[in-house]
Amino acid sequence: MASWDIFCSVVDNFGDIGVTWRLARQLAAEHGHQVRLWVDEPAAFAALCPQADAGLARQQVAGVEVCRWAADWQPQALADVVIEAFGCTLPEAQVAAMRAAERQPLWLNLEYLSAEDWVAGCHGLPSPQGQGLQKYFFFPGFVSGTGGVLRERDLLARRRAFQADEAAQRTFLAGLGVVVQGEERLISLFAYENPGLGEWLDALAADPQSTRLLVPRGRILGDLRQWLGETAELEPGFVARRGKLQLQVLPFVSQDDYDCLLWCCDFNAVRGEDSFVRAQWAGRPLLWHIYPQEEGAHWDKLGAFLALYLQGLSPAAAQALQQLWQAWNAGTGMGEAWRAARMHWPEWRERAQSWCAEQASRPDLATALEQFYQNSLS
């Protein structure tokens, strides 16, 4: 058993802690490691993990020791592996202790997920930190030569069983207050603020097929409220209907329940990194709202992913899907883009399933990290 320290600075509420919490659990449960997760905003962690207590400085949850990373952080017993998640800066006292150690730990900078071509060339490269200490760049990714993405060993088996069990899906949705009517199409929506939302909702309201839009509490609710003309905040349980569209606000749910929500839906609009990856494992068509970056750097990342994801589609379907993703991220043109994309629904659904199978054939992120650690010992 090796010991692992994972440091996470919460950015944008849930993305970074979402990834590191899944990783910490998997390293403990599947690889038998002793894992400490250091997080600077315990309240964000508790939102994803309801059994946690945001007021505790240390607690054991799902086999992981979750610790508050406070400003007055003091050196701890050094772990065998130290993960600096997403470029957060380790405490100076931690780095000093690592430099002075007779047996220095493996220091990994876990980077953000990207499909860009240069990622494979930078994955695993060392960065000298003085006095013999090295930091290695570890890049998740979708192709060989990268670190893969998070996937628990039994994830796809659990997903397939759940999607084959209509009674289990109805029971789960009923627990959220959702009772599906007839042949409604289910869509989940978890996104950043987006001025293009109204155009999409107009298209869904005018669509020949009935849609139930399920919206967990989040940043998109302000745009939803504006489209509805509501003056009060939209609380969980709120329901409204416009034409063929019925929308419903859900509570913010745990990670495990969010997985089930994605598995229930025919289409998932997601944001950031964690929900983006989990929507891919759902095997259903998806729409990604990428985190906006300065100088438009996120457009290159979006284009790089689409270059992989759209492979094998007919030219017409690939063009329609690309235009839909671009419209959503640009915040304009969603009505026309949605109407064009839905014409290719069967092909899109088949591609979602084949993409999921392709990614499942690669080592997952936790396994890749484990192998990198084992290689460092030899």
Automatic annotation (TrEMBL):
Presence of the UniProt keyword Protein biosynthesis in the record: yes
Annotated catalysed reactions: dTDP-beta-L-rhamnose + L-arginyl-[protein] = N(omega)-(alpha-L-rhamnosyl)-L-arginyl-[protein] + dTDP + H(+)
InterPro entries: EarP (IPR016633)
Keyword list, A-Z: Elongation factor, Glycosyltransferase, Protein biosynthesis, Transferase
Keyword Mitochondrion attached: no
Gene Ontology molecular functions: translation elongation factor activity
Coiled-coil features, chain-numbered ranges: none
Function according to Swiss-Prot or TrEMBL: Protein-arginine rhamnosyltransferase that catalyzes the transfer of a single rhamnose to elongation factor P (EF-P) on 'Lys-32', a modification required for EF-P-dependent rescue of polyproline stalled ribosomes.
Protein family (similarity comment): Belongs to the glycosyltransferase 104 family.
Designated name of the protein: Protein-arginine rhamnosyltransferase
Native source organism of the sequence: Geopseudomonas aromaticivorans
High-level lineage: Bacteria, Pseudomonadati, Pseudomonadota, Gammaproteobacteria, Pseudomonadales
Gene name, Swiss-Prot/TrEMBL: earP
